């Protein structure tokens, strides 16, 4: 059976400070670095050999990926970077403190922006530009809903990850809370009105095991030492 392990990057400074980030680059905290090490050490204990690794264009995910691969002694495997695995773009909310936004718009509206499927955060007035995306011909969004994030993620899943799993090759994805929620929604066939209940904590790996037809056989929430394990 082919295995897929998905991991949200370790804690970033924005996570620590309760700030919306989206496509903005922010560094990992010391805790975030340690989370990456712990994930790698746990995967090393499990003896999983990956054939490929996939991550976003954001440094917090790339660095977490490198830490994990170092700890499992698999830095040599191919690493594929794609903007399609980026965090969702939070538009005009980017850079704002979540608690202050909650004070301004209320808990219910904030929850819809953060956890809803089709709710679109306030848009930027002007499109941002960065060389990393301009060189690809990718236009940075003014804002993204989770539905929009899933739409731009799925072609990469279908073209680059699913075929490798069908070939029996184990895959590792290190990405972001929203992009992984979008993938989980697709894999687990979660209804639109239920996805707001799904959380993907920093540095908490999830492993899917697939049969040769890419049906999910088992889903495991991989735990660190001292944590309780959960399977479904």
TrEMBL record:
<feature type="active site" description="Tele-phosphohistidine intermediate">
    <location>
        <position position="9"/>
    </location>
</feature>
<protein>
    <recommendedName>
        <fullName>2,3-bisphosphoglycerate-dependent phosphoglycerate mutase</fullName>
        <ecNumber>5.4.2.11</ecNumber>
    </recommendedName>
</protein>
<feature type="binding site">
    <location>
        <begin position="114"/>
        <end position="115"/>
    </location>
    <ligand>
        <name>substrate</name>
    </ligand>
</feature>
<dbReference type="InterPro" id="IPR013078">
    <property type="entry name" value="His_Pase_superF_clade-1"/>
</dbReference>
<keyword id="KW-0312">Gluconeogenesis</keyword>
<feature type="binding site">
    <location>
        <begin position="87"/>
        <end position="90"/>
    </location>
    <ligand>
        <name>substrate</name>
    </ligand>
</feature>
<feature type="active site" description="Proton donor/acceptor">
    <location>
        <position position="87"/>
    </location>
</feature>
<feature type="binding site">
    <location>
        <position position="60"/>
    </location>
    <ligand>
        <name>substrate</name>
    </ligand>
</feature>
<feature type="binding site">
    <location>
        <position position="98"/>
    </location>
    <ligand>
        <name>substrate</name>
    </ligand>
</feature>
<dbReference type="GO" id="GO:0004619">
    <property type="term" value="F:phosphoglycerate mutase activity"/>
</dbReference>
<keyword id="KW-0324">Glycolysis</keyword>
<comment type="function">
    <text>Catalyzes the interconversion of 2-phosphoglycerate and 3-phosphoglycerate.</text>
</comment>
<dbReference type="Pfam" id="PF00300">
    <property type="entry name" value="His_Phos_1"/>
</dbReference>
<feature type="site" description="Transition state stabilizer">
    <location>
        <position position="176"/>
    </location>
</feature>
<keyword id="KW-0413">Isomerase</keyword>
<dbReference type="InterPro" id="IPR029033">
    <property type="entry name" value="His_PPase_superfam"/>
</dbReference>
<dbReference type="InterPro" id="IPR005952">
    <property type="entry name" value="Phosphogly_mut1"/>
</dbReference>
<comment type="similarity">
    <text>Belongs to the phosphoglycerate mutase family. BPG-dependent PGAM subfamily.</text>
</comment>
<feature type="binding site">
    <location>
        <begin position="8"/>
        <end position="15"/>
    </location>
    <ligand>
        <name>substrate</name>
    </ligand>
</feature>
<dbReference type="InterPro" id="IPR001345">
    <property type="entry name" value="PG/BPGM_mutase_AS"/>
</dbReference>
<feature type="binding site">
    <location>
        <begin position="21"/>
        <end position="22"/>
    </location>
    <ligand>
        <name>substrate</name>
    </ligand>
</feature>
<comment type="pathway">
    <text>Carbohydrate degradation; glycolysis; pyruvate from D-glyceraldehyde 3-phosphate: step 3/5.</text>
</comment>
């Amino acid at each position: 059976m082919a295995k897929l392990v998905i991991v949200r990057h370790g804690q970033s400074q924005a996570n620590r400070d309760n700030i919306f980030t989206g496509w903005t680059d922010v560094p990992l905290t010391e805790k975030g670095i340690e989370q990456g090490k712990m994930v790698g050490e746990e995967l090393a204990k499990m003896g999983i050999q990956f054939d490929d690794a996939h991550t976003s264009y954001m440094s917090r995910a790339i660095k977490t990926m490198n830490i994990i691969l170092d700890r499992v002694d698999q830095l040599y495997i191919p690493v594929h970077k794609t903007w399609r695995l980026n965090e969702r773009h939070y538009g005009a909310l980017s850079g704002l403190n979540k608690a202050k936004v909650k004070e301004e718009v209320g808990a219910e509206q904030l929850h819809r922006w953060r956890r809803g499927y089709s709710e679109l955060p306030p848009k930027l007035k002007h499109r941002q530009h960065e060389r990393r995306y301009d060189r690809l011909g990718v236009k940075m969004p003014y804002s993204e809903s989770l539905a929009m994030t899933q739409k731009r993620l799925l072609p990469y899943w279908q073209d680059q990850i699913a075929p490798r799993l069908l070939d029996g090759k184990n895959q590792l994805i290190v990405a972001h809370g929203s992009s992984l929620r979008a993938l989980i929604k697709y894999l687990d066939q979660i209804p639109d009105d239920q996805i707001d209940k799904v959380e993907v904590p920093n540095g908490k790996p999830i492993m899917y095991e697939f049969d040769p037809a890419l049906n999910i056989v088992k889903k495991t929430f991989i735990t660190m030492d001292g944590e309780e394990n959960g399977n479904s």
